[in-house]
Amino acid sequence: MLHSLNRNTYLIVLLAAGCLVVYTSGCGKSAETESSPPASAPEAAAGIQPAGGPPAEGSGRFSPVMSVPPAGDAASVDGIKFSNADLEQQVKRAMASPRFASLPVPMREQATAQVRKELINQFVSRQLLLKEASSQGIEVEDAEIDTELDRIRGTLPPGANLEEAIARAGITMERLNADIREGLRVRKVVDQHLADVPEASDEEIEAYYTENLAEFESDERVKARHILVVCDPAADDTVKSEKRELAQSYRQQLLDGTNFAELAKSSSEGPSAPRGGDLGHFGRGQMVPPFDEAAFSQEIDAIGELVETQFGFHIVQVLDRHEAGQQALEEVRDDIGAKMDDARKGAVVDALIKKLAENATVNYGS
After folding, report:
1. Is the same domain home to 45 and 190?
2. Cβ–Cβ contacts within 10 Å for residue 110, how many?
3. What pTM value is reported for the model?
4. 261: burial class by Cβ within 10 Å (0-12, 13-18, 19+)?
């Protein structure tokens, strides 16, 4: 029987290839291509420590996942094997992402377990769908691969080079092209089954909103972006002074009219840099106290004074503010529709995977 699948399985299998997330996790992808981190708080995704104290000693980077992987296979589908060694290598690459670097030790352990489970599920789902693609004679033209490579390059931050990025990850272009070919074959299979899935109607969205009003009661929230200059709390005064001066130079550029998003993409050292420093919306208490205080006290669009946290020096700009209260239907209509559409598509793909698994030999562990 298949392991429990992620609720957004269909999003996973629609990626160019399941392991593309692993290849480029440390290279700066757009938010569209990143799977969500196990920690749902926006500060975890943004590389800002949640309230509750600094990270535990030695937790600035992910600890080694496993020095010696167990012998045998993590999973197999009709004899096609996913070895524990390959699994742990992919886990290690995934956990090298800045998205996970600042998580406290307990959250990192939880994240490692979740990533491992999702990688196994991705392997099984991908192999089942590739088998179906083969049975249908679905192939991919070279031009389609070139188009996908261009799309992937477009998600990288300014100045980043795809070839150099995958080389640092120990991946060849030939391997990347092969994985993209597989991923596009998978996408074609899935698209066939999603073509007739209806989008949520206005009536359905309105009914959901009416029946789940409590879900749309919100605390005070702000939307902000930041530029981070990383500085170790244990650094000496000279290093701290240099880092502070660098951050101050960025702030002055912003005051002089430099585009915030572009400067964040090119200069910020936080995981949100590829998104122009965008942290999305967050509520009080979700960020470390100094950052939280600045975000909820600054005027909208103002370039704030430097904020020092255990991660370094931040330049914060608040883009939007919502007072506490009931969110109006029009504020959340698109989110509700996307949520309902995701659920329907996810159910269709889950059902497809389970059906394909019934006609295959799927094994976990050895």
Report:
1. yes
2. 14
3. 0.60
4. middle
